[in-house]
Amino acid sequence: MKYIYFSLAACLLAVAPAAAQVTDTTRTAAPAADDNFEGFGDASDASTSYNTQKVLYLTPTKLISVGYEAQLPFDLTTVGPQPASTAGVDTRIDAARGIRLAFNAPVISRNDFIYNIGLTYWNTGLDVANPERSPFFRLLNKGLRTTGINTTIFNPFDSKRFFLLQLNLDANGTYRNFGDLRTEQFTFSGTGIYGWKPNDNLQWGLGLSRTYRAGQLLYIPVLLYNRTFSPQWGCEVIFPARAELRRNFGTKALVKLGYELEGNTYYLGKIGADEVYLRRGELKPRITYERQLSGFVWVSAQAGLRYNYRNDAFRNQNVTGERESTLGSEPSLYENTLTNPLYFNISLNLVSP
């Protein structure tokens, strides 16, 4: 089983270039991860007849990122397993924190084609105050982890038009090492965007995404809109995953105000005869400050609110179509209510030129 992750990752890398040849990013997540399509290393010069992937004064692209994120304590109430139990059980999450690592590297970098590979690892350790109160709490107390591999393709057709494709394979669950990986933990996401770049201050496009950002599988339209209004002001948008207003202070510092939607489906294990999948989606209104420390080394500090968008446990990874009633929703195994704490994130980053 420990070779499953590497086998599927190899398949993904083999498929991506083929997909680009037939002409298809919400990441789950990000920049991870996050959806960071603004740049993957400049492969052109002023004499090229192809448009580039960058907009002036855009946030620098992170090639290597080492970060740490922490949420303040919050309360959790769970009802389940349903339908056997309808009584709520309360606990306190004393801490939700962990490291966030990301690595991106160009494999092919030409004027007319750019192909990147990325790796991510997010760990969220959950300190549950009373895990003995519920079998669901005991599973959560193991913590949540996401290990992912992604490929990004930027394919300009001429000086104005381009195509973006991003594919992500993530392993989400309570595993502690690769030997604990199971096929139930894997999710696949992808986004394709067809866009236009009329000038160096504007890049926009429309596309379609298969994503788990809202905590469950969705197929949704995507809007890409990167705009620099002046050397001081701009916006970076991949709606609905992320939208930010940017204020630049020269070329060595910037502040962004906006939000990001994060999430995925996590396989937690078994409770009795039931497989347990946590569908977790978080909306994060936030402010971000980024600054150059030296050369290509930047620091990023972020603060905001972790708002619970979805956090219920089900017997299946994806929506089955089964309904509790004609107008009701799919029946959950555990229905959870969370309070919304502040969170903080700091990272040290090596950025592209």
Describe the structure.
By secondary structure, the protein is mainly beta. The protein has a single domain (about 5-350), classed as Porin (Beta Barrel). The protein contains two helices and 17 strands. The chain has a 14-stranded antiparallel β-barrel with strand order 1-3-4-5-6-7-8-9-10-11-12-13-14-17. Strand 10 and strand 11 form a beta hairpin. It is globular. The two termini are about 40 Å apart. About 40% of the residues are buried.
Task: Give the SSE map.
Blueprint: H1 4-21, E1 62-71, E2 74-79, E3 88-110, E4 113-128, H2 135-140, E5 144-156, E6 161-173, E7 186-199, E8 202-211, E9 218-228, E10 233-239, E11 242-248, E12 253-271, E13 274-294, E14 297-305, E15 307-314, E16 335-338, E17 342-351
Antiparallel strand pairs: 1-3, 1-17, 2-3, 2-16, 3-4, 4-5, 5-6, 6-7, 7-8, 8-9, 9-10, 10-11, 11-12, 12-13, 13-14, 13-15, 14-17
Summary tags:
353 residues, mainly beta, Porin, 14-stranded antiparallel β-barrel, 2 helices, 17 strands, 7% helix, 57% strand, globular, disordered N terminus
Radius of gyration: 21 Å
**Overall structural domain count:** 1
Please give the alpha-carbon distance between the first and last residues: 40 Å
**What percent of residues adopt helix (DSSP H or I)?**
under 10%
CATH architecture: Beta Barrel
Fraction of residues in β-strands: over 45%
What does the largest sheet look like?
A: 14 strands, antiparallel, barrel
Q: Give the topology string: H per helix, E per strand.
A: HEEEEHEEEEEEEEEEEEE
Strand arrangement in the largest pleated sheet: 1-3-4-5-6-7-8-9-10-11-12-13-14-17
How many helices? The count is: 2
At the fold tier of CATH, the topology name is Porin
- Give the CA-based shape: globular
